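Good morning,

Attaching, inline, the backbone tokens for the sequence recovery test we're adding to the shared suite. The designed sequence is right after.
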């Protein structure tokens, strides 16, 4: 049977009988994708090598990915609100350079992936399929050509905001605390251009960290599926980044 993307469990219902597939068997037979990992900013950019055992220093390094059965790892390209014009885009490219250098040093273990075909190839060769997601729309510095550049280098999703709002989209933190710096919540005209361009490029719009109005503006605008890369359920954990039932 060809591999499938991981679901929590598989049940076959026959009157009076329930067959439950082993979670371990399902895990190993599926393509397991982790949609968000901050190891580049929490380790690599601080001088730590994820090619070594970082137990006790950070949450992950190369060896545990294979041990855990992770087939696809999307590495977060991230900087916080201290970065902006003339610094955020540059830092994004430095992090991308760092990941590509790590992959080039470990070609037998890792592979940069930009397409579904490349992903399948990496999995078939038992290599970690490495992808990139940009966490925070401030990293494009209000420029669509910077967005295009990040996509060309391999970014396959962009989180519209981090905790800090951009000039074109309000964040969950700012909306929840009524500290939105712009005249209105949600997406402005340029923000709508960003969403449309992400759709055109074939990236995913990531709605983790965005405010509720930004969420709904993006949902009503997007022509492609969206991603919630690293958020939970508000009714289980009521913090501003998590999603309410509606």
């Amino acid at each position: 049977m060809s591999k499938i993307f991981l679901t929590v469990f598989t049940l076959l219902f026959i009157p009076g009988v329930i067959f439950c597939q082993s979670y371990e068997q399902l895990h190993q037979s599926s393509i397991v994708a982790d949609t968000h990992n901050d190891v580049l900013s929490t380790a690599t950019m601080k001088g730590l090598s994820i090619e070594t055992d970082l137990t006790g220093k950070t949450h992950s390094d190369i060896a545990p990915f294979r041990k855990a059965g992770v087939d696809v790892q999307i590495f977060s390209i991230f900087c916080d609100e201290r970065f902006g014009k003339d610094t955020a885009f540059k830092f994004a490219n430095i992090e991308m350079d760092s990941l590509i250098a790590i992959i080039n040093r470990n070609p037998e273990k890792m592979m940069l992936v930009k397409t579904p075909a490349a992903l399948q190839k990496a999995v078939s060769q038992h290599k970690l399929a490495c992808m990139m997601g940009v966490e925070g729309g401030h990293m494009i510095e209000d420029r669509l050509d910077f967005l295009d550049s990040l996509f060309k280098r391999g970014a396959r999703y962009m989180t519209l905001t981090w905790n800090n709002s951009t000039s074109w989209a309000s964040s969950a933190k700012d909306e929840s605390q009524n500290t939105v710096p712009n005249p209105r919540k949600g997406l402005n005209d340029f923000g709508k251009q960003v969403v449309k361009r992400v759709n055109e490029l074939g990236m995913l719009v990531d709605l983790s960290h965005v405010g509720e109005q930004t969420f709904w503006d993006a949902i009503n605008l997007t022509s492609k599926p969206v991603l919630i890369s690293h958020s939970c359920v508000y009714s289980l954990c009521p913090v501003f980044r998590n999603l309410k039932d509606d």
